[in-house]
Known about the structure:
Elements: E1 5-7, E2 15-18, E3 25-31, E4 34-41, E5 48-58, E6 64-71, E7 74-77, E8 80-83, E9 88-91, E10 105-106, H1 109-112, E11 117-119, E12 135-137, H2 143-146, H3 150-154, H4 169-177, E13 185-188, E14 207-212, H5 225-229, H6 233-237, H7 244-247, H8 259-268, H9 276-279, H10 287-291, E15 327-329, H11 337-349, H12 355-369, H13 376-388, H14 392-405, H15 410-422, H16 426-439, H17 444-456, H18 460-473, H19 478-489
Helix pairs in contact: 11-12, 11-13, 12-13, 13-14, 14-15, 15-16, 16-17, 17-18, 18-19
Amino acid sequence: MGNASGKATEGFLPADFTHSVSGVHYKIDQEQGRVWLHFDRDDPARLLSGKRELRYFIGSGKRGRTYLFEERGYWFEAPINWYGKKQLWDMAPNYQSAKEMPLTLPVDPGCLHCHASSVAPSLPGARNHFATAPFAQDGITCEACHGDGASHVATNGKSAMLNPDRLDPIRRDSVCLNCHLEGQVAVNRIGRQPNDFKPGDNLFDFTVFFIYSGEVGSGGRATSQWEALLKSECMKRSNGRMGCTTCHDPHGSPGAGQRVAFYRLKCLQCHNSAGFTQNHHPEEQDCTACHMARPPSNDIAHEQLTDHWIRKRVNQERLPLAASGELVTVGGIPASERELGLAYAQMAARGDSHADAKAKELLRHSEKANSAQDDTELHSELGFLEQVDGDTKDAVTEYDEALQADPFDALADGNLAVIDAKQHRLGEALRRWRMVFDHDPSQLAAGMNLAISECSEGEKAEALNTLDDILVFSPDDGRARGFSEEIETGKEQCTGR
């Protein structure tokens, strides 16, 4: 954990590979004490060439590593990752099939807090916009698990820091689950953010995690070990005694030569009846070989997951990843209608056709039953669901409520602009798209809509400037490049109405 992040020069790993789908060649090298990502494509119809300075690395390299770069104060992840298990470079997760280079993968405090310490808050308007560096301390420090160390230091160690193993089970496990729990979807409690969590807190007072009720084990997700562990007889029969640190030492991992013996001893802490060690498959000392399969992950390429269901005679086949069904909370944690509605809304956005109606029903009921005046997320998600179903009037009402609570809500402002444009209020649409894109240049759809609208209003220079900005942040955006060429060659006149 101490090596989970740092300066790019300290975590330099050279890269040189070509992504076959997009045809982009990537290279990472060092030049005069600085680390650079180079990208190019020699296809005459889609020429591409450029580079970005990589400032920080994320990931120890044992499982993976990527890098962060900055553009005009906005921070992004590199589009390529190092996959430690397979010892190879490839595209970032979910981008193996990308036909264009994804160079606008935003970095926000929510993803940084599991890899770095003293993470900076985002500036208003964009989650990946920071006043200075995105974090002040490399790696995960002692305080991430043991709490504030000021008193410990001031008393020369006489004031003890928090020991997670002395907490009640849910608060003990929360220290690990703060970074090692995924679920199908996570919903923050109203008024709470994951970064507010401190060791000793109950994680589920901040965030609720949902899975589909019919999932098998971990559902094939790479960071869902606890969900599977909850189903295991080992966990059920421990009455809360078993937790993450029962088997895992957070301060270090056994070497390859010690791994089998190390984890076998963990099993024998409970499975220690007379004759067990002599009679239970003495020819196989590795308990995990039979009881903890390592199938491929469904959500991270080139990665395996260790199935913590701890069953008998399991195989190495990929676990099915549920895509629809009834959502339930991980661990049976109580959830409100609002939280369940937001979970269904997120699953609807991912393609679960059955989730749309459930989300709307729950969110509407929650809105009526509770004061949702300042609940930006509820209004924004409900507005989107109304808009998709053609209920424009109700969608506008919800988006307006969302923007009253958060004037920088890009989803609400951007979608209101779409409604304005369809209702021939192009001036208002332009204002909204310009605000969204100015505050967050990774909102490429808003930027493209802005350029098209500027051109249709006869604002040729403004349209070209907007397209130039899009191509600064996303130089492989074929639509922006093509539209810019049409304007430059006169094929698109931008004559206005």
